[in-house]
Write a structure and sequence with these properties.
Strand content of chain A: 25-35%
CATH architecture of the domain at 13-198 and 397-422 in chain A: 2-Layer Sandwich
Number of domains of chain B: 2
Strand order of the largest sheet of chain B: 1-5
Helix content of chain B: 40-55%
Largest sheet of chain B: 2 strands, parallel
Radius of gyration of chain A: 25 Å
Order of helices and strands of chain B: HHHHHHHHEEHEEEHEHEEEEHHH
InterPro entries (chain B): DnaJ_domain (IPR001623), J_dom_sf (IPR036869)
Distance between the termini of chain A: 48 Å
Number of strands of chain A: 28
Number of helices of chain A: 15
CATH class of the largest domain in chain B: Alpha Beta
Pfam families (chain B): DnaJ, Fer4_13
Protein name (chain B): J domain-containing protein
Organism (chain A): Malus domestica (Apple)
Shape of chain A: globular
Distance between the termini of chain B: 19 Å
Structural class of chain B: mainly alpha
Structural class of chain A: alpha+beta
Oligomer: heterodimer
Radius of gyration of chain B: 24 Å
Keywords (chain A): ATP-binding, Nucleotide-binding
Number of helices of chain B: 14
Amino acid sequence: MAEPAYTVASDSETAGEEKSSSPFPETAIGIDIGTSHCSVAVWNGSQVELLRNIRNQKMMRSYVTFKDENPSAGVSDQLSSEHDMLSGASIFNMKRLIGRVDTDPVVQSSKSLPFLVQTLGIGVRPLIAALVNNVWRSTTPEEVLAIFLVELKAMAEIQLKRPIKNVVLTIPASFSRFQLTRIERACAMASLHVLRLMPEPTAVALLYAQQISNQNVNTGSEKIALIFNMGAGYCDVAITATAGGVSQIKALAGSAIGGEDLLLSMMRHLLPDSETLLTSHGLDDIKSVGILRVATQEAIHTLSSQTSVQIDVDLGNGTKICKVVDREEFEEVNLAVFDKCASLISQCLHDAKVDTEDVSDVIVVGGCSYIPKIKSLVMSICKKEELYKGMKPLEAAVIGAALEGAVASGLSDPFGSLDLLTIQATPLALGIRADGNNFVPIIPRNTAMPAQKDLIFTTAHDNQTEALIIVYEGEGKKVEENHLLGYFKITGIPPSPKGVPEIRVILDIDASSVLRVLAGVLMPGSHQPINPVMGVRMPTVDDGHGWCAEALHRAYGSSLDLVTVQKKI
Amino acid sequence: MAVSVWAVSSISRFPVPKAFQVHENKKPIWRIRCKKEGAEEMATGKNYYELLGVSVDSNPKKIRQAYRKLQKKYHPDVAGQEGHEHTLKLNEAYKVLMRENLRKEYDASIGKVRVAGFRAGNTPSSSLGSSWNGPFRPQALFVDENACIGCRECVHHASSTFVFDDALGCARVKVQYGDDEQKIEVSVDSCPVNCIHWVEKEELPVLEFLIQPQPTEGYGIFGGGWERPANVFMAAKSYNKQQQRWHEEAENENNRRKSRATAEEETPAQAKAREDASRKINMEGFSRFWQWQNKPFWGKKGE
């Protein structure tokens, strides 16, 4: 499919311009694209308002149905029943699939979804297809997301009676930069300009900052809050220090676990040995799995309010499930998921160097916040008797995004409701490959953004005239454990013994999280680079990340290697 | 070497063709690092403390407040892309000053040392006041420079301990126990006005800080010039008292916050009025000290 004209995302340089030129700047809208539900909110001049679709829904199911030629998304589409979405014609869970390769465990677990996720396990993007008139019609997560965004955009434009261009999107904290570019790509396909991509818990932090500064006059005192956000696809934790409307993110942690994992493990629990059924994608099988999925989902929802639930379902293929499941059983089945949640919280507290006594408020939001085990788990780790009240669990993130949209669009409010700021932190470390196969971080995790750091490297061989800068993102010590973001070559290093030339690598992240890597060669005693400096916006790799690094290694071996010289903090 | 980073504000005033508004072009990122080679932050002529507008003695809380205030002004969310460069510096300054070890290193690199004892109160500072020869001892020497008549007797008897300040015309302690005890004893006894005192080690930093001449505020053509407390011991005592009261207040404030639920009913207006009043009282009593801490410190060391 020919992709629509691409509006070049302009570095938000335009945001500043619009501010000065027009007294009524366009307010960016906030969009929370959830794995299962989506919502849109906008600052209406005095407060944040959630937009409703024609069926008066604030939360819209995130899916796109392909029928004949015209796809339709969950914004306007009428879903007669949950089973419709599970017929194979609809693509959902885009957020779990976008920007992932087919070796990714999250993609592997998505193979039990009713639509087709075909993986070859070689580190390229998976094939995703919807069943249209008995034909598997291929598509991409970006395309699906773009179709969805177009509908959201149309809906917002009708209600706000103005064209929409700028948006603030919430994203999971664990998204790699490559995934962020995929989201930006989908937005560009929908002719939307991404003003900011906000990790979900930081959007919640901004809302918290507003609520705190509204309720106490004395804004001098600092409040530390732990935000736990778990939806269908992702679980994120953030620790924020808030004072005077400024929310400073001290630490972020996230992982691709969520309600979807609870659902899948529960389905496997209810129907053991169902692996072939789940992944077969025969027409009848899809239907059976759909029935099982809906029943399991309902059971999990019921377990949030009751201690046990009776599951009585006929899968239509001769299998009947008749079982009473109680909460303990559910919690036991999903022990791994809950353990992971706990470890994220502990890691975040550790990274932020915050003791549980210092935490004033614990905020639990997202779809999974209704699960009693999640609530009790967060409370017990934070040693709190109760959770922060005053936020709607499903709306907090989108409201925060709308606030950020208003703030970053340059709006101000006479009552000070927009006197807000989030100081974001980098969720993952950024660095390059050096000292063999090691990952040398240049910007560590949880550095305040915008950030700029540099590090000096040197050549690994005598008379080495070229060097490869391979940029990675992640926490692993070895490069293979991290996401490859891109690579480029520095040339024209004057022939000299190894260790003499200084290769300075600067990483620069601006407030909209755009990463630039600059690299240049200095000879001892000089402050000016010998050749023009290379400035590369990352990520540059498109697809099949792992391959590129391997291919580079095959082509060049260690001949273009770098080693570290000194470490600046 | 002083590398001038182009003043960001001056650029933004002129309309730059959009095509040239590329991040790298506008701001010479590459050059910024040069500051690390030599004098820190020569690019802007400001050190981290000046950048954040805080005194060298500021505690983390004050630094954090100042940082947030400035972020609200310069953060790219508020100021647009022009704020990028400045925010980077703020982030760097904040990171360094908030970490005790980095801050110490930085202090040393810019030649400014916090008056130890003001905050933690254990290690006497070396470069601001006197340094120590050998291990710390409970007693230290202190010259009341107000009383000193500039006879140079002490310097004559114990030249490694005392030093004569020609600019101010008085003697002061350079190195504690720089000479042997006998020499020191002779020099203390030799003082015709008995202005050399044995003081507790803990008192020393405050005394040495307070005895430094501080510029006084001028009103029109009146006033101005330099002055120091008439009785430095009294001044030190009251300073310590204030400091202690402050700590107690901070603690009370903490306790109050914790037990807010049980506190008596008070309307927000009343609470605000009370807080404003108490803050004002505090501020008045301290305005002089703050002034000292903020400005003259620089004037003196920076010359």
